[in-house]
Model the fold of this input.
Amino acid sequence: MEVADLHPWPATPREAEEIQDRLRPMLDLDGPGPREPRTVAGLDVSYAGDGGGAGVRLAAAAVVLDTGSLEVVAERVVTGTAAFPYVPGLFAFRELPALVEALRALPVSPDLLVCDGYGLAHPRRFGLACHVGVLTGLPTIGIAKTGFIGSYDPPGRRRGDGSPLRDGGEVVGRVLRTRDGVRPVFVSVGHRVDLDTACHLALALTPRYRLPETTRRADRLSRDALAAR
DNA sequence: GCGACAG
DNA sequence: ATCTTGTCGC
Done:
């Protein structure tokens, strides 16, 4: 599929922040977005050894599933190196080059992209899911496993229960329970999808496990590719 | 000033 | 993210 170019590429954290601020206005936050996408792609990256600085070996995977059956429609994985050190708030610059390469190799263009991390729930309102959305033009959502910014009250214990994630007086996401009695995930919108639809999709992708089937598939594929060396 | 801090 | 043993539970 087609993906916009990444340049200019930042050499410093300051430049990376400027890029986020410059791309932020490109976001489409009007919903509702695809409620019944036919295909959904999951993105994830695995690292070899200590994953702190730039240059460490990594593998990025994109796995496209049929939304109804959750069967794999297409998948691509590429290996490379971390393009940026890990800095909270600039996480996207670490794996974006490899993810873009994997996406470009896909023989199909998915109806939705699910990122492992945050979208709008970000210090400058431009997390990985937003960045991927602007680059691809596709609807994107972010589903993170742990907290980053914002405050919230614990959601109810049942699958489907959720509570608003608030930051600076605004709702930037939702803490959503995808399985009964299991730790919730953090859902935020990326591009061209509203929060209710994002949570609806998150639940459709978690019929059995806490994390979306898309993320689980991409995680396994990237991990295997790394091990294959 | 002191923590917290997506992956 | 990744490094890791044992341990609890279905």
User: Anything to note?
Assistant: Residues 44-45, 47, 51, 86-89, 91-92, 94-95, 116-118, 121-122, 127-128, 142, 144-149, 186 of chain A lie near DNA strand B (CB under 10 Å from a C1'). Residues 213-228 of chain A form the longest helix (16 residues). The longest strand of chain A covers residues 57-66.
